[in-house]
Write the structure tokens for this entry.
Amino acid sequence: MERPLKIANASGFWGDQPDAAARLVAAAPDIDFLTLDYLAEVSLSIMAILRERDSRAGYARDFVDVVGSLCPSWARGAGTRVVTNAGGLDPEGCARACLGVLRAAGLPRIRVAVVTGDDVLPALRAAPGGFANAETGAPLSDVAPRLATANAYLGYGPIAEAIRGGADIVVTGRVADPSLTVGPCAAAFGWGPGDHDRLAGATVAGHVIECGTQACGGISTDWLEVPGNQDIGFPVAEVSPDGSFVVTKPAGTGGAVTVQAVKEQLLYEIGDPGRYLSPDATVSLLSLRVAQAGPDRVSVSGASGRAPTDTYKVSATYRDGFKAHGMVTVFGHDAVRKARQAGEGVLKRLRAAGCAYREHLVECLGTGASVRGIVSRMSDTHLVETVLRVSVAADERAPVERFAREIAPLVTCGPQGVTGYSTGRPRVLPVFGYWPTLIAKSAVSPASRILGEAGP
Amino acid sequence: MIPLREIAFARSGDKGDSANVAVFARTPAAYAWLRANLTAAAVEGYFKPLGVGTVARYEVPNLEALNFVLPGVLAGGGSRSLRIDSQGKALAMALLELAVDYPGAGRGAAGAPQSP
């Protein structure tokens, strides 16, 4: 293929705008691929918990609704294909649910593929002496009995294979986020594993669009000056056969694709910019050239790649107790002093009742609490209102449950002006520790498979 | 003294218990100044109240940017941290409030923030 491949992102995280995919396809029917990212570092552990209560909850069900929203355009003949990591812990289950929706919509020609092989939990459980924490060096044996999930970040290979095999929808579990974009490029342009610079270019393209609207003005430092900032469009990368690309967005959407927005996103969640590790290539961002190529068009070229490492990054999680956060608003003179005393009083009562916590925190939102001790614009005594947020964590569930019952009483025993308690009792949340590690590529077997035509 | 945001824009993100803050100069002159003055030690000192470890700084001249990696700044990060900003979303905004002694300070000299 000679023309650029148009790849959009329609979901930057699990919980992003549900109508983004349908709106993108309506606004830009010539988009070749939609990519949808659902998996943050600990998303899979949330799925593991949900799955304990409901066996169908091992994947992002939101994506099945997205497939439903695209059916009308497919019925009209649109050729948009979709690549997503919505499969989470259960790519097969997700793909089958998609098939069900397609069958109900009378679209048996839409083919669904599944990518498997990322689940390496058995390998970790079998070798607690290996798989040291890549950040701290701690041995896995510290947490091995509490492991909840372990998934390798697979690369573009099985995605490209599925697309070459004719898949219209590719459902994966854990893959490196940019590989959702690299896969379609490699399939369309016939790239192989030795095309390091091209793979690097597409990896950078995938990185820029993987967080959706963040490439088009979302979370921009100068967000207030971003035109149309109340309805920012989702990004499209037009990737050329040489791996260079243009970032743009559909006409008629808000936001702005500018050098500033693209630069900010290029270094988002990056460590060493000279050595960005993906399973597809080791990428240097230091040779990139970024330029405004027209209104809402920014060109990015010059990515350089080297052979990837012989390991996959693994994101493992382990159960690590429970936590809860409770919030009430405190209004009136001396609001911050009152809030702090009230919050510390809650903890005092709990301690007196025999509850022990490994961690606790009292925050007064409105006082610069997001970065406590760093930025404070005004003296706390001038604030007429603050949101009191009290948090606890414990190894056991019971003391956290008890904490959840001690927030509401502030309405009657706290300072006058306690208000805004309308969201109910705080939820007790399981805590997951994050365990990044590496696994030899030779120990992992990525695979793709087309699930067959929709139908019984 | 002016706030850093007058000569730079920035974005922060998380990775486990670490975060990065990428700082981009608004003008070439501002990049030269930042490169010389916005040191890893200065950023580490600024974020000390959050318990940050040893800060690493990477120069990215092609983007007129400095990338700072802040280990241990999220009190456990992601699922673990009890803080309201458990994922470091506010760190770039916080760093942009740093008061800097930019020569000829004032919006005119520094270059007013560009509209995107």
Summary: Chain B touches chain A through 47 residues (CB under 8 Å). Residues 2-101 of chain B form a domain with the Alpha-Beta Plaits fold (CATH 3.30.70).
